């Protein structure tokens, strides 16, 4: 789960103004003090001038009471400048009563077949409710009383008050919603869990974004605010007389979480219950809300016996294989030796890569490992106790899952590396040789004959894939249908987990170690796994751990991969595939067509979602002055590449170009060593006149 950097989720901006003169030189001694002034005339203290409209409304609830079939609130409202707001004419109170079935805010149903409504649980009232009275006591000070048949003085539940526009009725007073009271210990999820992905739902392009509520201390109370309407029992629940005994809305909040999030995004699993349920769910009645969302067609598979204190998150994770995948990832570690230059690679390798192209990039596939000079590295897998887990003895050459031989892939790429960035791949992906050592470790070698000279340092990356039950080698390409839904047969891509490691960086001429492999990190370790939570990855079975560290082996500045608008680079790719042109590109479906897949990032606005990945403002002054390569022998300057991934209009491109940004220009030799002319940081670095933080949110 994402780590929150602000103490509260409420966005409070404080501005302190201090006056004084500094730096003035002395021109002599101080003069004599003047005579005391005339005391002022006693009178009333100054009060701000009342207003009748607001851009922002501050709602302070002084108190509320629940009576026998009635509710009363006393509250104050001020505008964005602290001025009291008069002439309020729209107010609403709601109560979601806590029952044995959970929270219910029952609608007032019309008569059915001439039978009067006999169901009242909680309720909802406005100034238009018959018998309701809204009284202005003083400037900005009000009392609201209304009948609410479904409450008594003993009612426990979520109590909410809102002012401002109601549904389709506009109001000069901006909306404000406050959860006045909520029972403690009744929520198994929290605002922090939802906002880990949704960031700030009040700015979301999704439905009801304007209904986000705050607590009495100004903190966001997202879950409780939603539960007031989307309670524990659906509106569809009826009694024998045909009246609703359910809540205000048809969709309960648990259904929204369990069902609507099943296609939330790639590699988000509702079976990973801990993502949302930060505490063990209190409701363990299988026939009740929560369980019934999914288990409503023939009962619950397997034997589950509810009992007090049972944590039902665990069996769900086990059933979906999450527990197994997490255990594998926790148990093993992949290490990669420092690359070495050898005069004869046949002394290190005795096999030719199985997928070596018949034509080859530089030459046909050789019959045997040639006795040529080249580069080699060694892959080593160890367990938690430091013991070597033999790649050779545990390698499965079949496409059929074998629990006794779980490793299904073990390969390595030779990279060019410069300025903490991968800038090319001198060693062809398919043209490599391998061999096993006596301890079960694996050597990977690239012949100098098959490498392309790159004027940079060298480093290796390696990937070792462990298969799990249901494994099929399809690389995740056919898990979706043409309608964007997951395949009905449950196939979920190639079920496996990959470990990625990087070697030290060496000088290709001398073989001397230059440094460890470093990556300029501007995201948190868990920024990706908050949403991509199923402990694997849809592509190459890699990992979203460590902020997608394994992804840069292929999606780096030097790989000419597409991101729908520009070439790769991890940053432009992430920006584009979440919020730019790439967000509209689908995968290959089961029927061979292109499918539009779920993109959970569409739930949050791009300019307010930066904090979903970035814990702090991106320092544009520290972005390496180094181009990013694109397909078609093109290159783009780095800041422009990241900005253009989302800001793709002609005007935006022209603005970047007028300030030195270069988009899709012809690439040149040693492109990664050529300085760019972009001057974005002059205006857009943090604290500048148009700093990036003024247009994008990097705090919660």
Describe it for me?
With 700 residues, this protein is α+β, with helices and mostly antiparallel strands. 11% of the residues lie in helices and 20% in strands. Strands 3, 4, 5, 8, 9 and 10 form a 6-stranded mixed beta sheet that branches. Strands 11, 12, 13, 14, 17 and 18 form a 6-stranded antiparallel beta sheet that branches. A 4-stranded antiparallel beta sheet has the order 1-2-7-6, with no helix packed on it.
Q: What general outline do the C-alpha atoms trace? A: globular
**What Rg do the Cα atoms give?**
31 Å
Quaternary state of this entry equals single chain
Largest sheet: 6 strands, mixed
Question: What would the keywords be for this entry?
Answer:
single chain, 700 residues, alpha+beta, six-stranded antiparallel β-sheet, 27 strands, 20% strand, globular, disordered N terminus
SSE layout and pairing:
Blueprint: E1 58-67, E2 70-78, E3 91-99, E4 102-104, E5 123-126, E6 133-138, E7 141-147, E8 157-163, E9 176-181, H1 191-198, E10 214-215, H2 222-227, H3 253-258, H4 291-294, H5 313-319, H6 322-331, E11 332-336, E12 340-342, E13 351-352, E14 374-383, E15 407-417, E16 422-424, E17 433-436, E18 442-447, E19 457-467, E20 496-502, E21 505-506, E22 513-515, H7 545-548, H8 570-579, E23 587-588, E24 594-595, E25 628-630, E26 634-636, H9 638-644, H10 650-658, E27 665-666, H11 680-684
Parallel strand pairs: 9-10
Antiparallel strand pairs: 1-2, 2-7, 3-4, 3-5, 3-8, 6-7, 8-9, 11-14, 12-14, 13-17, 14-18, 15-16, 15-19, 17-18, 19-20, 21-22, 23-24, 25-26, 26-27
Helix pairs in contact: 8-9
């Amino acid at each position: 789960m994402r780590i929150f950097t602000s103490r509260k989720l409420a966005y409070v901006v404080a501005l302190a103004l201090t006056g004084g003169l500094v730096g003035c030189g002395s021109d002599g001694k101080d003069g004599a003090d003047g005579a005391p002034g005339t005391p002022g005339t006693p009178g009333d203290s100054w009060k701000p001038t009342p207003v009748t409209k607001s851009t922002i409304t501050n709602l302070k609830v002084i108190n509320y009471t629940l009576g026998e079939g009635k509710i009363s609130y006393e509250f104050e409202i001020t505008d964005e400048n602290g001025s009291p707001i008069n002439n309020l004419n729209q107010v609403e109170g709601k109560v979601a009563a806590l029952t044995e079935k959970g929270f219910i805010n029952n609608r007032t149903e019309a008569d059915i077949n001439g039978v009067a409504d006999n169901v009242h649980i909680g309720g909802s009232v406005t100034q238009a409710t018959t018998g309701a009275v809204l009284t202005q006591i003083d400037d900005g000070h009000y009392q609201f009383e209304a009948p609410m048949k479904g409450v008594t003085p003993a009612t426990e539940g979520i109590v909410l008050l809102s002012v401002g526009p109601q549904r389709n009725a506009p109001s000069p007073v901006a909306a404000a919603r406050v959860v006045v009271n909520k029972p403690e210990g009744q929520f198994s999820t929290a605002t922090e869990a939802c906002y880990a992905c949704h960031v700030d739902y009040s700015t979301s392009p999704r439905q009801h974004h304007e209904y986000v509520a705050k607590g009495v201390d100004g903190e966001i109370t997202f879950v409780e605010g939603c539960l007031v309407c989307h309670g524990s029992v659906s509106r569809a629940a009826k009694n024998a007389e045909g009246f609703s005994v359910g809540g205000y809305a048809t969709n309960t909040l648990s259904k929204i979480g369990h069902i609507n999030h099943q296609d939330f995004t790639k590699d988000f699993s509702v079976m990973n219950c801990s993502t949302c349920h930060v505490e063990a769910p209190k409701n363990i009645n299988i026939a009740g809300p929560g369980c019934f969302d999914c288990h409503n067609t023939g009962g619950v598979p397997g034997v589950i016996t509810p009992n007090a204190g049972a944590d039902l998150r665990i069996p769900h994770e086990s059933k979906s294989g999450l527990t197994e995948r997490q255990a594998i990832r926790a148990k093993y570690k992949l290490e990669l030796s420092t690359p070495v230059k050898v005069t004869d690679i046949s002394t290190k390798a005795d096999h030719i890569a199985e997928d070596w192209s018949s034509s080859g990039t530089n030459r046909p596939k050789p019959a045997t490992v040639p006795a040529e000079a080249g580069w080699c590295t060694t892959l080593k897998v160890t367990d938690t106790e430091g013991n070597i887990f033999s790649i050779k003895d545990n390698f499965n050459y079949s496409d059929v899952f074998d629990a006794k031989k779980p490793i299904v892939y073990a390969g390595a790429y030779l990279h060019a590396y410069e300025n903490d960035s991968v800038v090319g791949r001198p060693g062809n992906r398919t043209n490599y040789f391998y061999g096993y050592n006596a301890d079960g470790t694996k050597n990977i070698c690239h012949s100098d004959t098959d490498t392309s000279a790159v004027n940079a340092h060298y480093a290796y990356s390696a990937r070792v894939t462990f298969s799990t039950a249901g494994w099929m080698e399809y690389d995740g390409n056919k898990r979706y249908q043409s309608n964007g839904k997951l395949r009905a047969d449950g196939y979920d891509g190639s079920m496996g987990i990959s470990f990625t490691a990087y070697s030290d960086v060496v000088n290709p001429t001398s073989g001397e170690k230059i440094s460890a492999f470093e990556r300029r990190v501007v995201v948190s370790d868990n920024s990706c796994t908050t949403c991509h939570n199923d402990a694997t990855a849809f592509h190459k079975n890699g990992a979203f751990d460590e902020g997608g560290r394994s992804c840069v082996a292929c999606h780096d500045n030097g790989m000419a991969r597409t991101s729908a608008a520009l070439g790769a680079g991890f940053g432009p790719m992430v920006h584009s595939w979440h919020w730019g042109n790439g967000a509209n590109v689908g995968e290959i479906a089961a029927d061979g067509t292109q499918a539009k897949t779920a993109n959970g990032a569409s739930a949050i606005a791009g300019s307010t979602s930066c904090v979903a990945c970035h814990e702090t403002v991106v320092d544009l002054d520290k972005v390496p002055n180094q181009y990013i390569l694109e397909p078609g022998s093109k290159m783009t300057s780095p800041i422009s590449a990241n900005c253009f991934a989302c800001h793709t209009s002609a005007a935006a491109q022209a603005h970047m170009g007028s300030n030195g940004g270069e988009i899709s220009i012809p690439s040149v030799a040693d492109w990664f060593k050529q300085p760019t002319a972009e001057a974005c940081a002059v205006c857009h670095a943090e604290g500048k006149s148009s700093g990036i933080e003024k247009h994008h949110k990097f705090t919660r």
